[in-house]
Amino acid sequence: MTTLSPARSDASPLESDDALIEFGRAQRSRQLARWDWTGLLAALFAAVAIAAVFLPSHRSLSLTALGVSVACYAVASRVQFEFAGGYVIPTQVVFVAMWFLLPPRTLPLVVCCSLLLGAAPELVRRRMPLERLALNVVASWHSVGPAAVLFLLAARPPAWRDAPIYAAALAAQLGLDLTAAYLVTRPVIRIRLVDQVRAVAPAYAVDVLLAPLGLLVAFPAYDRPWALLLVLPVLALFATFARERQRRIDNALELSTAYRGTAMLLGDVIEADDAYTGSHSRDVVDLVLAVSDRFGLVPHDRRRAEFAALLHDIGKVKVPAPIINKPGPLDAAEWKLMKTHTIVGEQMLEQIGGLLGDVGRIVRSCHERWDGSGYPDGLAGDRIPLIARIVCACDAWSAMTTDRPYRKARSRADAAAELRASAGTHFDPAVVETLVDVLDV
């Protein structure tokens, strides 16, 4: 199953995985952002789970089966594979076996109690506010679907001939889990249902893959509940993988923070060397990110676009200040020297390497033109990286609407007209159209 952390209302579905993971970690130790829907769904689940216990029983409840099921499910719920926005817990291998060890009418209540038991260590260590237990209750909704299907169609020992019924139970589980997660998440984050499906698809894939293993365990465990304990070594293996994944994520987050810190430091260097260039670069960042989101850039490319916007003029620190601040047109020699700043910028960032080295190749192309008349390589059209095309147009807008040493800022209307007039020659027409739409001019 998957557990999502309700996020802030201004979160973007295109934020990087790193940012979502960092935010999700912080959210798990905070109070709920919104209680209304979460409280309502938790209360409704409690009513359904308790009412289900009083339904007619197809078989007696074995205390041994109950104890083993609760213990194994609680242990499984402690194994968490972190991903953007939440985490996957491999409870499916235990849950499917529980379909047959316990009367279906008891499944929702037993699953909920097991999840609460699994969360107890976090409460004892004060890593989680008490009220966040409501999310565990809401997460238990996934158990209602299989319980209903099995109660109506297959409250009997496991049998391969009932595979279609088990598939229907699994589909009901995923459908209810998705619905509950969406109802909790939607009030606090602007997310479409299709985006929610995309976000939880990896977790549901894990559930589907683990379900057959749970069914295999159910055959020996049906008459011998202690056999369910055979899943504990598998859960221990999952826990090892989960810890290793968390270490890799921690390292990736540290590296991402280092890259961002380096980029910001270089931005400060630009600003210290030339206040106009520094503030101009920071202004370009916001525009580039807005346009990038309209183009649907994936998180990794969005991060590259952010750094390219911030550092596209980094090479100007090697250009003499008298040329940068000259109050009139540059002569041929000065202009030739000025044109080297993109190559210098690429070289500076390549020395850092990693993500910023990759950004350096984009910085090199930020002054190319759509018609091939730009510099330094004379690239044209789609041969220019999309991010460089976005930075180029946003850079031009910021330059036109800002006071320069040799002229006053142009009005927004004049700048927009210039962008449109240069679409297809200087700028990518699609980028200009998107930028003007973002600026609403």
Provide structural commentary:
- The chain contains 19 helices and 3 strands.
- The chain has 441 residues and is an all-alpha fold.
- Helix 11 crosses helix 19.
Number of helical regions: 19
Strand order of the largest sheet: 1-3-2
Average pLDDT figure: 83
Compute the CA-based radius of gyration. Answer: 29 Å
Outline the low-pLDDT stretches: 4-16, 20-25, 29-33, 273-280
Query: Structural class from helices and strands?
Result: mainly alpha
Quote the distance from N terminus to C terminus.
47 Å
Strand fraction equals under 5%
Bulk shape: elongated
Topology, pairings included?
Elements lengths: L1 E3 L12 H11 L8 H18 L9 H15 L3 E3 L2 E3 L3 H10 L5 H18 L8 H7 L4 H10 L9 H23 L7 H29 L9 H43 L1 H21 L3 H13 L9 H4 L7 H7 L2 H12 L1 H11 L21 H15 L11 H11 L6 H11 L2
Antiparallel strand pairs: 1-3, 2-3
